[in-house]
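worker-3 :: picked DNA topoisomerase family protein
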Amino acid sequence: MYLKREYKAGKQSQAEAHEAIRITHPHTTEDLESIVYNANITNQDALKLYQLIFERTIESQGKNAIYDKQDLLFKIKNEYFKCSVKGLKSAGFLAMFSKKELENDESNDDKDNKEKEQNAQFNLKIDDVLSLNDLVLSTIKRNAPSAYKEADFVKLLENKGIGRPSTYASYLPTLVKREYISISQDKKHIITPTHKGKRVVEVFENAYQFIIDLTYTKQMEEVLDEIVENKSSYVDFISNLNSKCPKIEKLERNDDEIKPSSEGQITYIENILRDLQLNLSEEFKNYKEDNRVAKAFLDRYIKEHEFFKKNNKKASSSNNDENRPATPKQISFAEMLAKKHNVKLPKGFKYSMKVCGDFINEYHKK
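worker-3 :: tokens ->
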């Protein structure tokens, strides 16, 4: 059940600079109550927290749970169906849980997975014929991958093994400053790549893909650590990098691929800038010379501009009604409503379609 283990955080982990949350000295489960009593821990939440820390500390020195797993492939006519089942072979650290905790843990699992784990081992051979007792069709809805949030960024770097805790905080501000990404100003703080950022990635993907490869980045940072520890030479590192990209200083976009924007695109962009009162950012300054930049600008602002035009049209229509006289039919209907409800007609109702219309709307349903 027990196995001595030593845990150490990697250099890219923020945990490297922090002590683990653990008990300060080992003791038996039976001594748990006396330990917390002597430490004057009387709050129930604090008691539960210490018990949790104690149990997790002990479990960290336990063996892994071992499962027997079977992958089954069934053929029904010309279609193949696959399922995987498993059964617990050796509980390992799971045996340290009380029976109640195991039941609670199981209750949180997916019911289908629970059923699969029961009686998981089948005595089957290849080409065995089985009877189909039941067939259930289910629809599984999968959401599209969600966009990265600002709060998820450090965790992403840690999982990918990129960067160091001392540099994590500088990444996003640098990317925003260079206009490679934008971060939404709402509560979600969604990270969105800009047109400029996408173009930078495309350039490296097409020419020097190794530079944006995660494996290369991790290896590079390991070499930098060795340089700091005087285990490797800075010159050797740079020489190796230079040999991989001897012409990197000549890397430029092919001007033949760039097409100027059409007059329609330019006019549309200028209308958007005027109507939305936008200042042209550095990212879109070449919208006249590069139709890809123009397209990126329109993709970002066209919906907002359509919304603006729709609201502006309503306001304009309302203003026009104020300046237009009421129709004879409206005037006659308004006079009839005034007589019926014994109310005075609004001032100037004959000369304003809006004033007359508002009066009719107010008394028509009374």
